[in-house]
Every structure is written in structure tokens, then in C-alpha cells.
Amino acid sequence: MPDLSADYLDLDSLFSAEELKLRDQVREFVRARITPNIRRWYEDAYFPREIAQEMGALGLLGMHLTGYGCAGRSAVEYGLACMELEAGDSGIRTFSSVQGSLAMTAIHRFGSEEQKQRWLPGMAAGDLIGCFGLTEPEAGSDPAEMRTTAERDGDGWVLNGAKRWIGLATIANVAVIWAKTDEGLRGFLVPTGTAGFTAMPIEPKLGMRASIQAEISLTDIRLGDEAVLPDAHGLRAPFTCLNEARYGIMWGAMGAARDAYEAALNYALERHQFGEPIGAFQLTQQKLVDMVLEIQKGTLVALHTGRLKDAGVLRHEQISFGKLNNVREAIEVCREARMIFGGNGITLDYSPLRHACNLEAVRTYEGTDEIHTLIMGKAITGLPAFA
Predict the structure, then answer these.
(1) What residues are annotated to the active site?
(2) C-alpha span between 199 and 201 (Å, rounded)
(3) Rg from Cα positions in the chain
(4) CB count, 10 Å around CB of 226?
(5) How far, in Å, CA of 6 to CA of 52, rounded?
(6) Chain center to CA of 184
(7) How many CA atoms lie within 13 A of 244 on its CB side?
(8) Domain named Acyl-CoA oxidase/dehydrogenase middle: which ranges (predicted)?
(9) Burial of 129 (0-12, 13-18, 19+ CB in 10 A)
């Protein structure tokens, strides 16, 4: 029997028993709850809100954070969870990232004790949903050009502006909104029931269909000082959260690639043409070999990055290295896997093209290829090439 694991470098030996136990728990959750349903969810453009509590019960929301009901897991354990969730679908991993890496991290790192107590336990349990409002219709890769403002009004604030491509915004209970003030860039916690807050889903979409992305409108939203994240000043604060999400992405992309490879290998062994399984053909075997090489290398990149993160020595350009490489290669793996299916590969009966379409969005958000290339270019040369 062929080896379907793709673990030809015996990477499992590099993980602890506890890390593998967590991975297997998440893998089983995906097999039981995501894999049987994802075709319908994707086709219907439906995000299953009910899985939030299920993921919370498994400790998957804000799992890298400590206290306030969070699991306090390591960076590597968080990465393994992202890999397994994205093997199910990028939209499911994106939910975990938006909730934990973005919204919860913003509150945990920059919020007051009162804010943490109010929001984090419910978010860790999946009872409350958060979103992260940074990107705008005219300010994507350059957040310094954002137009959303927060102006002082007596002892409070008034927010006006718009945000776009905000995950979970239509079902969120609280929005972390970044806005320009006379004090520089600040973060605000906006309960989504506040007068002047509206969110509309962006649709139709060709990818991330089992996920929610929305446009937010902020019209004369009045907030007290208790809404301000007290320790969030300047772009460093949202970029800290973005780096948490980018880190998870480098693991997640390899999960999508692995699932596409496994589907293609199974198909290659079952599908017969010219009297042979197509897996016996040289060109098919070349495709499978190329997939395994990139999955193994990408997983090594993610694991080493995770160990650096757990050791507290990870640099931001190393995160860009992993996000840029792993998502780019995962897309190629999924496209190559689709080719093995021939015409059948464009249906939702098989996962590779769904993964590839999702990964086009993953490749764009949390920093495009171009942005991460320039981050690395500056690290290499010492010369900033940003416009």
C-alpha cells in the first residue's frame, strides 16, 4: 500500500507527544465536523456559526493566549491547529485567526483589565465573536493612509469612516476599530450594536465562501474613554496582531496543500486510463513528487519558525518568509493536484480547486506577496523600497 501521509522526512519525530496529541484532536474534529459539510457550506456561501462554541470547547480560540479562559498553548501547537483546520477549509482556519490572532490578541495585548474581563472569556468560549477593522476601501496595503477618524468630543470620542474585507463583521459582538486621532493611530472596542455601526457582507465571492468578509460603515459612533485600548499607540499595535495571524497562515496553507495532495494521490490510484491507474504514469508521478517536496519543505519552515517564536527570538521578516513561501507554494500544489483530476477537478466533489480558490484570498490578506517581498528585501539590503 502507498504511504498517504506525505511525511517522508519523518517530521512527526520533531514534535512532542503533547503536540501530536493536540494535532490529532483537531484533525479528528475536522474529519467529523468540517469535511462532511464543507462542500455544502462552500457552495451555499454559508459560515456555520454553531462551530464557534465547538472550537471554543476544544480550546482553539485565542489558544496561544494565557488567562481569561484561553488555553495558553505554545506557538507550535497553535500552528498545528491551524494546519489541521485549513486542511478542512481556509474559511474555518480564518475564523480562528480573526477571532484569536487578531481581535483577541488586540484586547489581550493592548486592552485594560476591565476590557479583558468583559470580552476575552466569552470569545475564548465562542459565545462572543470579534472582528478586526483595519483595512479600508482605499487603504489596504498602506494602513497609514486610512481615513477613519476618531475625534474628541467632551469626555468621549466620535468615530467616522469605513472598513472593508473585515472577517466576521456581520456576526461579531465587538469590533476592534483602528482610527486616526490627534494622538496618532488608536484602537477602539466598538460593540456592534452601537448606533452608527453597520456591516454588510461582501458577495458574491469566488473563494473563502464558507467564511464571512464584510464592509463596515461607521457613522457618528459615540464612545466613552473606556472603549479605547489603552496600550495601543501607532501602527505597531495592529501590526503585532497581523504578525500573529501571518504566523498561523504559514501553517494553515500547508494543511490545504496536504489535503489537496492526499485527494490527488487517492484519485491517481483509483482512476484508470489506457488500462492503468493514472498514478502509474510518469507525468502523474512527477506531479505527486513535486507536491510532497513543497509540503515537506513548507512544514519544516513553519515548524522552525514556531520554535523561534516559542523561544522569543522570532523576527518579523522571518514571518514574512514563511507566509510568502508557504502560501505561494500551497497554491501551486493545489493547482497541480487539480490537474490530476482532469475535468472532474473543477467540481466540488474534490477539494484541490476549492483550496486553490481560497488560497488566492489567503495570499492577498495579511500582506500580499509584494508586501512580504519588500519586508524581506529591506531585511536583506537594509534599504526600504516601499513607495
Answers:
(1) 366
(2) 7
(3) 21
(4) 12
(5) 30
(6) 28
(7) 27
(8) 131-220
(9) buried
Closest CA to 55 of 19, 94, 21: 94
Segment (H or E) for 366:
none
Q: Does the CA dihedral 89-95-96-101 come out positive or negative?
A: positive
Task: Retrieve residue 174's grid coordinates.
Answer: 465587538
Domains of the chain (ranges plus CATH)? 11-125 (1.10.540.10), 130-233 (2.40.110.10), 237-381 (1.20.140.10)
- Specify the DSSP class assigned to residue 265: H
Quote the CA–CA distance of 17 and 321 in Å, as a whole number: 28
Angle subtended by helix axes 352-364 and 236-270, to nearest 10: 160
Cβ–Cβ < 8 Å for 288, 261: yes
Task: Give the per-residue pLDDT at 5.
Answer: 60
pTM of the model: 0.96
Q: Say whether pLDDT at 4 is over 60.
A: no
Task: Check residue 182 and give its pLDDT.
Answer: 94
